[in-house]
């Protein structure tokens, strides 16, 4: 593995992630890898597979060239629109990740509990 390339990719990923106000866990979940693995990628300790690299570019709204440090930032024409939950807080995204792992009975209990709170105004 070329250390310089891994460091360049990790640095570009970190900059794009923070620009989008996402946590490492948010990005890891969206590209389908463990958050620990994503952390190693961001620190420049590993390179992703081609499929993971493409998903990373889409989620972070950066071009492959930008991620690899080959050219200045340009519009990414092939990337999909970011998911609608980008504006949510990190706490809410963490809660949603946890809720997705609950069994049906626990989800019902959580739903009853949540219904007792007042909605945001």
Write the layout of secondary structure elements.
Layout: H1 3-19, H2 24-31, H3 35-42, H4 50-60, H5 64-68, H6 90-100, H7 104-115
Helix pairs in contact: 2-3
What helical percentage do the residues reach? Answer: 55-70%
Mean pLDDT: 85
Question: Could you give the distance between the termini?
Answer: 51 Å
CATH architectural grouping of the largest domain: Orthogonal Bundle
Name of the top-level CATH class of the largest domain: Mainly Alpha
In short:
The chain is mainly alpha-helical. The protein is 60% helix and 0% strand. It has two domains: 1-73, 434 Repressor (Amino-terminal Domain); 84-121, no CATH class.
Walkthrough of the structure:
There is one protein chain. By secondary structure, the protein is mainly alpha-helical. The chain has two domains: 1-73, lambda repressor-like DNA-binding domains (434 Repressor (Amino-terminal Domain)), CATH 1.10.260.40; 84-121, no CATH class. The protein is built from seven helices and no strands. The protein has helices spanning 3-19, 24-31, 35-42, 50-60, 64-68, 90-100, 104-115. α2 (24-31) crosses α3. The longest helix has 17 residues, at 3-19. The chain is elongated. It starts with a helix and ends in a 6-residue tail after the last helix.
């Amino acid at each position: 593995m070329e250390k310089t390339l891994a460091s360049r990719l990790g640095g570009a990923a970190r900059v794009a992630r923070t620009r989008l106000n996402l946590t490492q866990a948010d990005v890891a979940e969206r590209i389908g890898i463990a958050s620990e693995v994503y952390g190693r990628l961001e620190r420049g300790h590993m390179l992703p597979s081609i499929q993971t690299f493409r998903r990373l570019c889409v989620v972070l709204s950066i071009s492959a060239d930008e991620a690899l440090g080959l050219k200045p930032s340009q519009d990414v024409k092939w990337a999909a629109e970011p998911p609608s939950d980008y504006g949510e807080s990190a706490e809410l995204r963490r809660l949603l990740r946890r809720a997705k792992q609950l069994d049906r009975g626990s989800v019902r209990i959580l739903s009853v509990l949540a219904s007792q709170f007042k909605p945001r105004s």
